[in-house]
Backbone:
């Protein structure tokens, strides 16, 4: 008679900590029994400190555009929690002032910084995740891990006055597609998730709002709690039907 094996506990690493998607993912993943780490340039943000106290989330400092810092992050998470089985790259990457400028006006340095923050950091995180996950034992579904890239609608179409951001988002999408074609046959699920919406997270008064789009009315803003549910479902998909790209947008979004 064989003894049933105990499922290995999932280790989730969310890179790009903030009050929206990252916080929603951290809460949901811990509620689902995962050990969760969140990395940010400033790990002392109040929302991350609150997640540590309320959900036991581990906080790490990391500049995701620095190769050495990213390697240290994965070393620390692996040493303290275990090898990651779910990695979420949730970094927008745009620098202040990069949008609403014509191609003739945008500063080259700002364009380079946006590319480095968004696409190059995705490369570094994806590279380290792939290296660690290849060593994971397959789970009951035959999967060694999941890598999810949060992206924007600029990954699908280049809007006017946002050439640098479109360039970075397209690069991130291309990276994700290449990684998916390479890693899926090795048991690593890679997904690109463009979000075509402003994201409104819950404020202290209970409303959902976005700093530019205002307060959510009739679900016109994307809800990060439901985005997190999608990410969890991606991680748990059967390998016979792994999704590579899921575009999320509110029901009233014009596209």
Residues:
């Amino acid at each position: 008679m064989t003894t049933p094996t105990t499922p290995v506990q999932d280790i989730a690493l969310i890179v790009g900590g903030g009050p929206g998607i990252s916080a929603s993912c951290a809460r949901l993943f811990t509620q689902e029994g995962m050990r969760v780490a969140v990395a940010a340039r400033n790990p002392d943000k109040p929302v991350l400190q609150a997640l540590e106290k309320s959900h036991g989330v581990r906080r790490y400092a990391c500049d995701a555009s620095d190769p050495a810092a990213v390697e240290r992050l994965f070393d620390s998470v692996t040493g303290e929690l275990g090898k990651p089985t779910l990695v979420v790259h949730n970094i927008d990457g745009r620098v202040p002032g990069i949008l609403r400028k014509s191609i003739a006006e945008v500063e080259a340095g700002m364009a380079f910084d946006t590319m480095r923050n968004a696409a190059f950091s995705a490369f570094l995180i994806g590279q380290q995740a792939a290296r660690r996950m290849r060593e994971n034992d397959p789970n009951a579904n035959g999967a060694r891990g999941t890598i999810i890239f949060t992206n924007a609608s600029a990954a699908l179409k280049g809007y006017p006055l946002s050439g640098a951001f479109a360039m970075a988002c397209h690069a991130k999408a291309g990276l994700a597609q290449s990684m998916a074609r390479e890693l899926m046959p090795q048991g690593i699920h890679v997904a690109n998730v463009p979000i075509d919406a402003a994201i409104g997270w819950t404020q202290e008064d209970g409303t959902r709002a976005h700093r530019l789009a205002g307060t959510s009315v009739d679900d016109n803003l994307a809800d990060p709690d439901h985005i997190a549910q999608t990410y969890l479902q991606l991680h748990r998909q059967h390998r016979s039907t792994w999704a590579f790209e899921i575009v999320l947008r509110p029901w009233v979004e014009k596209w």
Summary: The helical segments are 21-31, 46-55, 67-80, 108-133, 163-183, 224-236. The mean pLDDT is 92.
